[in-house]
Amino acid sequence: MTLLETVRGPADVQRMNYEQLTGLAAEIRDFLVEKVSQAGGHLGPNLGIVELTLALHRVFDSPREPLLFDVGHQAYVHKIVTGRQTSFDGLRQLGGLSGYPSRAENDHDFMENSHASTALSYADGMAKAFQLIGQTRHVVAVVGDGALTGGMCWEALNNIAADPSRPVVIVVNDNGRSYAPTFGGLADRLAALRMRPGYERALHGVRRAFLAVPWVGRLLYGVLHAVKRGFKDALSPQPLFEDLGLKYLGPVDGHDLPTLEAALRRARAFGGPVLVHVVTCKGHGYGPAENDAADRMHQISPPAVTVPRQAEIPRPKWTNVFSDELVRIGSERDEVVAITAAMRGSTGLDAFAAAYPRRCYDVGIAEQHAMTSAAGMAAAGLHPVVAIYSTFLNRAFDQLLMDVALHRAPVTVVLDRAGVTGPDGASHHGMWDLALLGMVPGIRVAAPRDEPTLREELREALADSSGPTALRFSRGTVASPIKPLCRVGTVDVLRKEGQRNEVLLVGVGAFAELAMATADRLADQEIGVTVVDPRWIFPVPHVLAGMAAEHDLVCTIEDAGRHGGFGSAFATVLRDRVVRSPLLDFALPQRFLEHGSRSQLLTLTRLTAQDIASRITEKVAEHRREAEQAEPGLRAPLVCTEHTREGEVECQPSGGPTQEVARWT
Ligand SMILES: Cc1ncc(C[n+]2csc(CCOP(=O)(O)OP(=O)(O)O)c2C)c(N)n1
Ligand SMILES: CC(=O)[C@@H](O)[C@H](O)COP(=O)(O)O
Ligand SMILES: [Mg+2]
């Protein structure tokens, strides 16, 4: 039986000696490489935190003393130690082990949110609660050097340092990297401290030597301890944290178990807020990860499942199309600059940075700062592109609203990973951006459906200097290109057939492809269907209301949360204009969606051509029955309201929908 197989919980790790622990660490690394290479996931971060996680579970009494992992992508070893190693074959798969802590999985897990820089605030809150209810319990927060560049961390540190009686143990897991090397002055300071990992080892060795001397040893050590300050300052000046009122321990070699454990025991014994600066190597112990210059195998994909298909033209990723077009635009316009929040590679800015190194800014994991800094750049004459994942827009909403939009700053926000992302689960699906963007006065939002429209709409956004613009697109490969029949205003008509205008299908972004597949099924049932792609979805194009007035039923399909999505915005427009065609809005249910593959989750949420078509068919049949019984009446008058940046402006009726139809058929 291997050492790993004997691990059912922290107690098994606590019983081991250092020789066994060294063997266990090696087995865990082999296990991680095997399982994560198969399932996909965060290999580098977890290879780097093996010894630290073992030491944490030996020194602290989890779950009574909670261990919190910032972001949580580095909690695989924690999951192994807490009895879940047999579940790793289902890692990040639907119904399988989450790639982040999960309270449903285990009592040792607390924080499920994978948005960075939250663990210290969580720890502060728990520590205050324990203090209030009179429980002396340590709270341990493991925060990476990247997460430490997030503003919330410093808000939390300010609070944690405020009360010397609360035993919060902050473990900075400093591997010098986010994806790429961590950016900023703080990172540079940590790097300077990191250069001295010998301090704790030297201290640990000196202490052991003195305490080994009978009688006088302890006395002598006490004397040395009194002069340690000078000794320590000489080796590793750490005013960075001690000036905040935090006890600083370190830097400690995060792969040297005995030293690491000794430092953590000192931290535990301290009894107040203490920061342990642990130096680790992302990808430690696995050559391909250690030598991966890009991101130390921060995250790897599962092996591609090759399904034999007729020769399909390989299509690029949305991110790569964005990257390519931005570089082209950058060559034409010097004032276009780009900002990333520590994700330059995965948001497609590497090529732009290579081409224009002085025009690409990494701000660390600091989306709020990115947005307001962009507003500053715009105020000084630049046109910044803020490239972030859709789900992380949540972080920067107030900055977008009040620092960008209030000033009508020409900032373009490019939201990658919009809609269902998949294996990263609830806090990574990009399902809130439309509800947020729909609230921002004066912003124009585009949702490209394919490569040509992404290139076109990115150019249109960057050409607009009258206010903020945003683009959103999915994770993964671009949808198949769909050539429009015609363009009415900014709206592309993709399909129009059938004698009667029974159904208007509005496909948002990549879901234009899904709308076309749905139309195929409706046409098979001789239902007259028109498919359109709004392209610019906010403000809702006014021509869509004219089209809606001409159809018996209006349907919107979007890869976004239903609440506040495009469908609900369009329903408001139809109400304003007294267009009585009923509207069905197909969108993601407003709940936290689990992890799984994108296609599995779209099936689970019934966002498939089959599900949508069958729901529409029911509604059309219902409408036909009602129409047969109803008196032939006039269609409701169309009241035109132009939705512009200034808000809603009444405009002259365009002679009613008939002319509109004539114009756009
Ligand atoms: C608010 C937010 N922005 C971006 C991300 C994407 N992200 C996930 S992990 C990571 C890097 C984390 O670096 P660090 O905290 O140093 O942890 P390490 O991977 O080095 O262990 C980033 C940027 C995120 N999870 N949350
Ligand atoms: C934790 C982390 O790194 C996430 O930001 C996520 O894993 C990104 O995944 P993708 O870049 O594959 O969408
Ligand atoms: Mg790091």
Automatic annotation (TrEMBL):
Cofactors, names only: Mg(2+); thiamine diphosphate
GO molecular function: 1-deoxy-D-xylulose-5-phosphate synthase activity
EC number from the UniProt entry: 2.2.1.7
Cofactor: binding comment: Binds 1 Mg(2+) ion per subunit.
Catalytic reaction(s) noted: D-glyceraldehyde 3-phosphate + pyruvate + H(+) = 1-deoxy-D-xylulose 5-phosphate + CO2
Key words of the record: Isoprene biosynthesis, Magnesium, Metal-binding, Thiamine biosynthesis, Thiamine pyrophosphate, Transferase
The protein's annotated pathway: Metabolic intermediate biosynthesis; 1-deoxy-D-xylulose 5-phosphate biosynthesis; 1-deoxy-D-xylulose 5-phosphate from D-glyceraldehyde 3-phosphate and pyruvate: step 1/1
Binding site for Mg(2+): 145, 175
Binding site for thiamine diphosphate: 73, 114-116, 146-147, 175, 286, 367
Top-level taxon of the source organism: Bacteria
Enzyme class, spelled out: transferase
Domain spans labelled Transketolase-like pyrimidine-binding: 316-480
NCBIfam families: dxs, PRK05444.2-2
Function statement: Catalyzes the acyloin condensation reaction between C atoms 2 and 3 of pyruvate and glyceraldehyde 3-phosphate to yield 1-deoxy-D-xylulose-5-phosphate (DXP).
Protein name from the UniProt record: 1-deoxy-D-xylulose-5-phosphate synthase
Source species: Amycolatopsis samaneae
